[in-house]
Every structure is written in C-alpha cells, then in structure tokens.
From TrEMBL, chain A:
<keyword id="KW-0238">DNA-binding</keyword>
<protein>
    <recommendedName>
        <fullName>RNA polymerase sigma factor</fullName>
    </recommendedName>
</protein>
<dbReference type="Pfam" id="PF08281">
    <property type="entry name" value="Sigma70_r4_2"/>
</dbReference>
<dbReference type="InterPro" id="IPR013249">
    <property type="entry name" value="RNA_pol_sigma70_r4_t2"/>
</dbReference>
<comment type="similarity">
    <text>Belongs to the sigma-70 factor family. ECF subfamily.</text>
</comment>
<dbReference type="InterPro" id="IPR013325">
    <property type="entry name" value="RNA_pol_sigma_r2"/>
</dbReference>
<keyword id="KW-0805">Transcription regulation</keyword>
<dbReference type="Pfam" id="PF04542">
    <property type="entry name" value="Sigma70_r2"/>
</dbReference>
<keyword id="KW-0731">Sigma factor</keyword>
<dbReference type="InterPro" id="IPR014284">
    <property type="entry name" value="RNA_pol_sigma-70_dom"/>
</dbReference>
<keyword id="KW-0804">Transcription</keyword>
<dbReference type="InterPro" id="IPR013324">
    <property type="entry name" value="RNA_pol_sigma_r3/r4-like"/>
</dbReference>
<dbReference type="InterPro" id="IPR007627">
    <property type="entry name" value="RNA_pol_sigma70_r2"/>
</dbReference>
<feature type="domain" description="RNA polymerase sigma-70 region 2">
    <location>
        <begin position="23"/>
        <end position="90"/>
    </location>
</feature>
<dbReference type="GO" id="GO:0000428">
    <property type="term" value="C:DNA-directed RNA polymerase complex"/>
</dbReference>
<feature type="domain" description="RNA polymerase sigma factor 70 region 4 type 2">
    <location>
        <begin position="121"/>
        <end position="171"/>
    </location>
</feature>
<dbReference type="InterPro" id="IPR036388">
    <property type="entry name" value="WH-like_DNA-bd_sf"/>
</dbReference>
Length: 182, 155
C-alpha cells in the first residue's frame, strides 16, 4: 500500500487501525534496524521500535506531509535513539567513551561477528564515534541515504553532514589501522 | 609498514553484522505495537473534553484532587449535623411550650403516649420521674416480679 493510501485511510476512524497496521508492517524492519544499529542490543531496539510507532500513532494526525512519511518516521526514531543513549549516559553518569565501550562489548559478544577481526575492529571504531556522528555515519554508509534526506531527518545542513561524515570515516579508518595486526 | 585501512575497499553491508532478531519477531511486532496504542475512544474524549482539554495534565490532576477532597468534606459535614440537631431542637422546642398547653393537647388530640415517648423524655430529663414516682427499690422489684414474663417479651 502506498503512503498516501495509508494516510488517507488513517484519517477515517473506521479504517484507522487497519491503515496503521499496514504502516507498521511496511516500515517495522527499517525502523528496527535503524534503531538496532544505534543501540546494538536487541531488547533495547525492540522497546524503542515499539515506542517509535506509538509516537507515530499519536502524531500522525498532525503529520503535515511536507516531508516523506518515512523521513518523518526516521526522524522520530532518530530522536528516540539519541534520547535513549543520552538518558543512559546521564543515568549512570557515564562519559561518552564508556557508552561506546559498552556497546562495543555487546557487539563483540554477538555471534554474528565472531572470527572476523577486521569487521570487529570496524564496528568498535564506529561505536567510538559520538552518537550524532555515528548516526550520520550509519545513515550514509549503511543506508546510503542522500544527504538531502539526511538533512531532513537530522535537521542539519547538507554541508555540515558532509563534513561530519568525512571526519567519521577518517576516525574509523585510523582506529582500524592502529588496532589491527599486520 | 602497516597498511592503512580504507573503508571504500571494505565490503559494504546493509547493516552491521549483528545477530538477527528472534524467528517470527516481525510477525509478532505489529500486534504488540497495536496492543500498546492508546484507545481511540480515550483519545477522542481527551481531545473533545471541552474546557478540560485546555488545561494541562498536572492542572487537571490537581482539579480532580480538589473535587474529591471537597466531596469528602461536604459529605462529612452534611452527614454529621443532622444527628445532633433533632435531639436538641426537639427538646428545646418542647421546653418552650407551657406545660398546661401540652397537657391540653394530649387530652384532646387523642394521641397515645407510648413507651418510646417516655424513653425520649427520660433521656432528655433524667430526673423527671422523681417528682411523681415515690417508690423504693423493693417495691419496684415486687411490681416487676408480679408481671407475666412471656417469652415473647424478650424476642
């Protein structure tokens, strides 16, 4: 079902639930992986994905359609992730690097990455990036999202996003180079 | 010299090599999300709640608390006063009536004085019987013993 059909049916109270169910089924995987890349842990990603869609439900009536529906959903998901990581840091009074180290420990324990040293170092390097820079890196590197769309999701200018991604790539390459065996 | 790592030369993935979510996760997720949604009726009520809709949640909670406490206070005062007023009011109003008028009323109206009336009277004036009842305790017991004591009296 196309986005405009979903939105049209959502306006009708009789078909609202059905339309929203379609919306969840259409975007749940993308939202989940967007969140999972940021928080790494499946249980956290599960909670946040549900929170994102509950917020979408609450505010979809006020969605002005000046952006694509998925861009809008991505923005909600992004804010949820950044709030989650920020509150985690504040709750445990952790500096930036410690949350990165905690996430790196989780990814190291993940069986999907076992045995691949370069990949492990790459993930550790990505997780050491500040949250917002890691978000930019994920959107560009994994999702291959155009900068213009990234600007809508993050509310940042295209120029700033390009600079942020460039610096992130440099940091990642330096870390992997320094921390891998010959 | 150690070769430098280049991201462009590394095989690109669609997402990091994290373990997949549990089997059937995306089949269950929509129903879990739908179960968490606030009820449409509740949302409609909140949206169309008239002037209450313009108040902040904290203010609405405070207002509800004041209303409940006010209700308790009102019910306390309204239920407490009627128990006190009738006894004093009736006694005071009877005291204001001259005794001759009371006797005249009782003789002409055909009203019957019952035990309950006497009980109320002695409760209001504990020493009222001393004026006309000159009997010793032994005499009272003798009269009471001579009364028939049917079981029905105690039922």
């Amino acid at each position: 079902m196309e986005d405009h059909e979903i939105l049209l049916k959502f306006q009708d109270p009789a078909s609202r639930s059905l339309a929203f169910n379609q919306l969840v089924r259409k975007y749940q995987s993308k939202v989940y992986w967007h969140v999972r890349k940021m928080v790494i842990d499946h249980a956290d990603a599960d909670d946040l994905t549900q929170d994102v869609f509950v917020k979408v439900w609450k505010h979809l009536e006020n969605f002005r359609q000046d952006a694509a529906l998925f861009t809008w959903i991505y923005r909600i998901a992004t804010n949820e992730c950044l709030n989650f990581l920020g509150s985690k840091r504040r709750k445990f009074l952790l500096p930036l690097t410690d949350v990165g180290a905690e996430l790196a420990a989780k990814i190291q324990a993940d069986p999907a990455i076992a045995g691949d040293e370069i990949e492990l170092k790459l993930q550790q390097a990505i997780l050491r990036l500040p949250d917002k820079q890691r978000l930019v890196f994920n959107l560009r590197y994994y999702d291959e999202m155009p900068y213009e769309q990234m600007a809508e999701v993050t509310g940042t200018s295209v120029g700033a996003l390009k600079a942020s991604y460039h610096h992130a790539v440099k940091k990642v390459e330096d870390y992997v180079t320094r921390n891998t065996d010959d | 010299m150690k070769p430098s790592f280049k991201l462009d030369a590394h095989p690109r993935r669609s997402h990091p090599p994290l373990s997949s979510p549990p089997a059937g996760y995306f089949d269950r997720l929509p129903s879990q999300i739908m179960a968490r949604l606030p009820q449409a009726e509740a949302r409609d009520t909140a949206a169309g709640g008239g002037w209450l809709g313009f108040l902040s949640p904290a203010l609405r909670t405070g207002l509800a608390s004041v209303a409940v406490l006010g209700g308790f206070a009102a019910s306390f005062y309204m239920s407490g006063t009627p128990q006190l007023v009738p006894a004093t009011a009736s006694t005071a109003s009877l005291d204001a009536v001259p005794r001759t008028e009371l006797v005249g009323y009782l003789l002409t109206s055909g009203a019957h004085v019952e035990s309950a009336d006497l009980a109320v009277l002695t409760a209001a004036h504990p020493g009222i019987a001393k004026d006309f009842l000159h009997a010793s305790e032994a005499e009272l017991n003798e009269v009471l013993d001579s009364q028939p004591s049917e079981e029905l009296t105690y039922l």
